[in-house]
Amino acid sequence: MASSLSLCFSLLYMASSLCSTFSPHPSTAQATNTRKTRTSLIIRCGPRNNRGPLVKGRVLSTEAIQAVQSLKRAHRGDQSKLNDVLSETLPRLIKADLIAAFNELRRQDHADLALKVFSVVRSENWYQTNLGIYADLVLALGKKGMMEDIDRLILDLEREGTIPCDDKGLGRLVKALITTERTESTVRIYNLMKRSGWGSTFPSYYYVANVLSKGLRRLGEETIAEEIDAEFGWSCGRLGEYEVLKDLKCKTNGSSI
């Protein structure tokens, strides 16, 4: 009986030894699982330049995007194709899409194409002089060094006879011409402003008169700058005094005029 029990214990001991020998070690199993784990790396490609992509929807419609792309393709190829786009494709666009195409080309630094599109805009029946658009185009042309095109643009504006002196873009246009240092064009705009009633029919705003006077002095036109100071100095001074009084009242009463 005792020998039988001893034999059973021996068999059990051998079996447990065999199990411990062939069972995988915890560290070995963990290493195997680690090797099987795959790491995914996400690579995001950024834009190739500082210009944002064409935006479809509220800013640019499909028609405007296609017009911009057609203009750029034609500009790189045959000049006759470019003329076809300008004379056939663009006139079919509605006002909002035509203006959007112009702004997009200007934003992409295609000032030469934007200038051609603006010629189409001016030929439309709904076109009315917008000095803000002129100011944007002057800055775009100046950025590309197209100074002679700026002068021709102002000559075309002068041929319209008069300009809206109450347009908020007037000050922007004057400032753009001074920034690009187009002395002759700045003087042309000043004379056009006077013919259009600026200072008599329309009030001579302090900001515009001040920008003109300082800018013309910087461009070497002392005589015209002194003329502006002499002719509009009183109204400019009164307007400046009014602005000071307005600020004082706002600070005192906490209200605005």
Structure characterization notes:
The chain has 257 residues and is an all-alpha fold. The protein is 70% helix and 0% strand. The model is unreliable at 25-29, 43-58 and 234-257 (pLDDT under 50).
Main sheet record:
none
End-to-end Cα distance, whole Å, is 117 Å
Please bin the fraction of helical residues. 55-70%
* Topology pattern, helix = H, strand = E: HHHHHHHHHHHH
The secondary-structure class comes to mainly alpha
What is the radius of gyration computed over CA atoms, rounded to a whole number of angstroms?
A: 37 Å
Shape: elongated
The overall pLDDT, averaged over residues, is: 76
Low-confidence stretches: 25-29, 43-58, 234-257
- SS strand fraction: under 5%
H/I helix tally:
12
Please report the total strand number as a whole number: 0
